[in-house]
């Protein structure tokens, strides 16, 4: 089942304008966004574009014929093998907050509500996201449930809750008062929308 936007009647209808969200390397998407969020969406697009242009591009080596090599039994060298994306950096930051207390309206660094945790985590990766789950449901590119990757933003509960996909069918989130930041199970029928910040 793909990510879909659904209305449960929990949120009032808002007149929407179309905002163009540019995902570098993918293209432009016209997304309905309430007028009061147009400026934050434009600012986010600028931040994403700046982050993409600031990333160094690795030179492409010419393809060479494969050569047989004897296996090396020394210590592995992983340096340069992995490129940290904003989503990976944000998820790693959020993981450091497992056990932190939930507090409505809090955005860290010691206590969080759901959207405050997501906003704080992405800020550690240099990406400024809007504050509420509703606003966060309009950033980035939509992602189908079957295509979720760790660090994707997942909006649930009719749009009233947000967390970060942690892989293995788990959501890392600040759930509710009395519960610390933790991992919870995630099923396709729970998802209102999922978004990828690139």
Written description of the protein model:
The protein is an alpha+beta fold and 198 residues long. The protein is 21% helix and 24% strand. It has helices at residues 38-54, 86-95, 114-124, 133-136, and strands at residues 16-23, 27-34, 101-102, 111-112, 141-142, 153-156, 161-167, 170-173, 182-185, 191-196. Strands 5-10-6-7-8-9 form a six-stranded antiparallel sheet. Strands 1-2 form a two-stranded antiparallel ribbon. A two-stranded parallel sheet has the order 3-4. A hairpin with an 8-residue loop joins strand 8 and strand 9. The protein is globular and about 40 Å long. Mean pLDDT is 79; it is low at 1-16 and 68-81.
Secondary-structure map:
Elements: E1 16-23, E2 27-34, H1 38-54, H2 86-95, E3 101-102, E4 111-112, H3 114-124, H4 133-136, E5 141-142, E6 153-156, E7 161-167, E8 170-173, E9 182-185, E10 191-196
Parallel strand pairs: 3-4
Antiparallel strand pairs: 1-2, 5-10, 6-7, 6-10, 7-8, 8-9
Average pLDDT:
79
Query: What would you call the structural class?
Result: alpha+beta
**Series of H and E elements:** EEHHEEHHEEEEEE
Rg (CA only):
19 Å
| Fraction of residues in H or I helices | 10-25%
Q: Specify the overall morphology.
A: globular
Q: Which residues form runs of ≥5 with pLDDT under 50?
A: 1-16, 68-81
Report on the biggest sheet: 6 strands, antiparallel
Strand portion, in percent? 15-25%
């Amino acid at each position: 089942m793909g990510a879909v936007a659904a209305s449960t009647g929990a949120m009032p209808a808002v007149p929407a304008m179309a905002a163009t969200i540019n995902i570098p390397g993918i293209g432009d998407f016209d997304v309905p966004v309430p007028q009061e969020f147009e400026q934050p969406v434009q600012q986010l697009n600028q931040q994403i574009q700046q982050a993409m242009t600031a990333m160094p591009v690795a030179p492409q080596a010419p393809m060479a014929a494969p050569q047989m090599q004897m296996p090396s039994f020394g210590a592995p060298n992983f340096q340069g093998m992995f490129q940290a994306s904003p989503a990976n950096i944000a998820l790693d930051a959020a993981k450091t907050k497992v056990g932190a207390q939930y507090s409505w309206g809090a955005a860290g660094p010691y206590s969080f509500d759901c959207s405050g945790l997501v906003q704080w985590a992405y800020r550690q990766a240099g990406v400024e996201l809007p504050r509420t789950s509703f606003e966060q449901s309009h950033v980035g590119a939509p992602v189908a449930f079957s295509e979720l990757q760790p660090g994707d933003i997942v909006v649930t509960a009719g749009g009233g809750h947000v967390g970060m996909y942690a892989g293995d069918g788990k959501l890392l989130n600040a759930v509710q008062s009395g519960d610390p930041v933790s991992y919870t199970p995630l099923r396709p029928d729970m998802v209102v929308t999922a978004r990828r910040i690139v």
